[in-house]
Amino acid sequence: MSKLVKLSDLRLGAHNDSVLVVQEALAKAVGLDFRSGPGTFGERTRQAYAKWQHHLGFSGPQADGLPGPDSLRALGTKFGFKVQDEAAAGKVASPVPGHTVTYRYGIQNARYAAGFHTGEDYASAKGTPVVAVRDGSIQWSNDTGGAYGSWVGLRAENGRVYVYCHLSWRGVVTGQGIKAGQHLGKVGSTGNVTGPHLHFEDHPAGPFVYARTRKPMW
Ligand SMILES: [Zn+2]
After folding, report:
1. What is the pLDDT of residue 70?
2. pLDDT tens digits for 32-87?
3. What domains are defined for the chain?
4. CA 118 to ligand 1 centroid distance, Å
5. Which helix (H) or strand (E) holds 25?
6. In this protein, which residues make up the domain named M23ase beta-sheet core (predicted)?
7. Closest by Cα among 106, 167, 179 to 141
8. Which terminal residue of the chain has fewer beta carbons within 10 Å of its beta carbon, N or C?
9. How far is the CA of 200 from the centre of ligand 1 (A)?
10. Ligand 1 centre from 58 Cα, in Å?
11. Lowest-confidence pick of 1-5, 63-67, 105-109, 174-178
């Protein structure tokens, strides 16, 4: 029976069985020596994973050593493990798989023009994958979000627009169709921020209007 690796378990600093399975595969694929930290996703594992991504032909931000679904499935196919991706389950638990909200919606804060926090923040390392929370299409994907930095707007099939801000990399283009769970970019710190995080907004009435948001639900 083949082993199961959960994509959302694979993040810098994590310690779990999924990491161990991936380390065993990386030992065979690129010679990773993980005796100093079996089951722990540290810098040595990240560098080995980046080698695997380069081996697959990825470059730049797509070869940063942080697993995405495509590179992980390729590794699993070659070295005998299965990948559990939230997309396959049809339900996405978080726009940043494996991460929870670190700064809530609606908190009063004079730093924002609206006077309150218009979305939910997910603090995580630069390069952490972000995913579509619902099926839909990409309404915009560009670097001209101003304070929002490099951003993506997802028009979901439920009529809402979900907004992903401060990205370090965008993997989708305007007009593209997208499925729940599909990788659409990476966490970064573009725009007006103090550190890397995803700022995630829910615009229930459709088109983006500043501060016309509610607590994100999907
Ligand atoms: Zn925020």
Report:
1. 87
2. 999 999 999 999 999 999 999 999 999 887 788 988 888 999 999 999 999 987 65
3. 3-84 (1.10.101.10), 88-218 (2.70.70.10)
4. 7
5. helix 17-30
6. 116-202
7. 167
8. N
9. 7
10. 30
11. 1-5
Residue type, 167: L
Beta strands 120-123 and 197-203, pairing class = antiparallel
Question: What is the pTM assigned to this prediction?
Answer: 0.68
**pLDDT (tens digit per residue) in 138-183:** 999 999 999 999 999 999 988 899 999 999 999 999 999 999 999 9
Residues 6+ apart with CB under 8 A from 184: 130, 131, 132, 138, 152, 154, 164, 170, 171, 172, 178
Q: Report pLDDT digits (tens) over 23-38.
A: 999 999 999 999 999 9
Alpha carbon of 126 to ligand 1 centroid (Å): 15
Tokens, residue 82:
């299965």
- How is residue 214 annotated by DSSP? B
* Separation of CA 103 and ligand 1 centre (Å): 7
Cα-to-centroid distance, 40 and ligand 1 (Å): 29
* Ligand 1 centroid to residue 122 C-alpha, Å: 8
- CB burial class (10 A; 0-12, 13-18, 19+) of residue 1? exposed
Classify residue 79 by burial, with Cβ atoms within 10 Å: 0-12, 13-18, 19+: middle
